[in-house]
Amino acid sequence: MRTDLVVIGAGPAGLAAALAASARGVRVALVDAAAQTGGQFYRQPAAGLGAGRPEALHHQWRTWERLRDGLAAGPVRVLTEHHVWCVERTSDGFTVHALLGPEQEEPVEVHAHAVLLATGGYEHVLPFPGWTLPGVVTAGGAQAMLKGGLVVPGHRAVVAGSGPLLLPVATGLAAAGVEVAALVESTDPGRLARHAPALAGKLPEGAGHAAGLLRHRVPVLTRHTVVRAHGDDRLTGVTVAALDADGRVRPGTARHLPCDTLAVGHGMLPHTDLAETLGCRLDGLTVAVDTEQRTDVPGVWAAGEATGIGGAALALAEGHIAGCSAAAHLYGTAPDPAPAALKARAKLRRSAAALDAACAPPVHWPEHLTDDTVVCRCEEVTAGSVREALDLGAGDERTVKLLTRAGMGWCQGRMCGTAIAGLAGRAPTPAKRPFARPVPLGVLARQHPQEGQS
Ligand SMILES: Cc1cc2nc3c(=O)[nH]c(=O)nc-3n(C[C@H](O)[C@H](O)[C@H](O)COP(=O)(O)OP(=O)(O)OC[C@H]3O[C@@H](n4cnc5c(N)ncnc54)[C@H](O)[C@@H]3O)c2cc1C
């Protein structure tokens, strides 16, 4: 298939980008690995579930209706269940390589003059003793079960970690009938107060969640952390403890909370694999973009969480600006983004930076890790093995990987990379994965048939 612009990712950023570019006459293909559009924020219940009131599980449903109806009414070509594993630069643009359907074995290519990366982010979870027990899920995973599968992960839950995602997860679970034993947030509220001016715009949202927590009588423990999850073959409870001003556990504050579910998360990390393969410059762990959301590779734009974690409203604004810019460059005109989107982006970036500064996970989290705590779940590498590798002189994630296999499994270090960097006392670095998805060897062989092969 050949088109003008491929937008990869149909979350808020990709939807806004596709609609903006299409409204300006660009032929757009919107590609997503999921079975439905919407991304993480507007995750829809599986069609077969026959959900009567899906809006009950969502915020900003009107915005979703506008995006959904705009897509249905317009000419954007929507390609769901397309798992993009690589984007290749060609002489006349780009080739997007994807694998089809849940099996991800049948290859397909989309050729385009320009590419817009709206691949979002994924959850960041730091390890702690017991975190691999059944019953421990990620905060976003619990939310995804609720929004996408209309199921709850258990009867009595603790929601824990750091960052704003914990609030909708706790209120969402409570509204769905789960007894939320506690919301355990490691952030010190004083840090949020110090960023009050930048966070002023987030107050109504925060107040809504606070009212939800009050309504469902959810106890909130700030400056607390989960130090251990308990259970033999599944979760039966967690130990939580208070943190001091330096982020260390305060002795004598540990207490046990019985629960069958722990929904835990420590913020989000951006998906940058496709951008990295294309050679786009990163700024830390995020894709670097200019004021028009252009990367430094001509013909490649990026928007949403891939360029920095900031929430759905920021993703929408960035997507719109990127779509307008891509259209303008394809047609040789001047970009014409809505002034409201530019204003919203500036304001929301300020609040995202403030939240990021205030909501960092506790600095001394590696101290809670016993030597038998699994750090790399795919290869079952423990904290003890990682420490041994560090004692042998491994100074970074890559050397630890070579010595222990940590990060060599199915997730390619997406889950354990930051934990290993933390154990090594270093800031995480981009992983430089050549493929964004596992690719069957047969598919690769068909890409480059050898001469003389039948
Ligand atoms: C699990 C989870 C749950 C969340 N729940 C909430 C919530 O309840 N409330 C809240 O305020 N925020 C939530 N967030 C944060 C929220 O998702 C974002 O703020 C917002 O959705 C960002 O929009 P986006 O368009 O940048 O990315 P996303 O919405 O993440 O969309 C990215 C899209 O790109 C697709 N994609 C990525 N890589 C590929 C690839 N290689 N090939 C094909 N498709 C690809 C994904 O399938 C996805 O649909 C959640 C995040 C996560 C990860």
Plain-language structure description:
By secondary structure, the chain is α/β, with parallel strands linked by helices. 32% of the residues lie in helices and 23% in strands. It contains 14 helices and 21 strands. Strands 1, 2, 3, 4, 5, 6 and 19 form a seven-stranded mixed beta sheet that branches. Strand 5 and strand 6 form a beta hairpin. The longest helix has 20 residues, at 312-331. The protein is globular. The relative contact order is 0.14. Flavin-adenine dinucleotide is lined by residues 8-14, 31-34, 39-41, 83-84, 118-123, 140, 143-144, 165, 168, 268, 271, 304-305, 311-312, 315, 436-437.
Quick summary:
This protein is of the alpha/beta class and 454 residues long.
Brief descriptors of the model:
5-stranded parallel sheet, binds flavin-adenine dinucleotide, 32% helix, alpha/beta, globular, 454 residues, 7-stranded mixed sheet, 23% strand
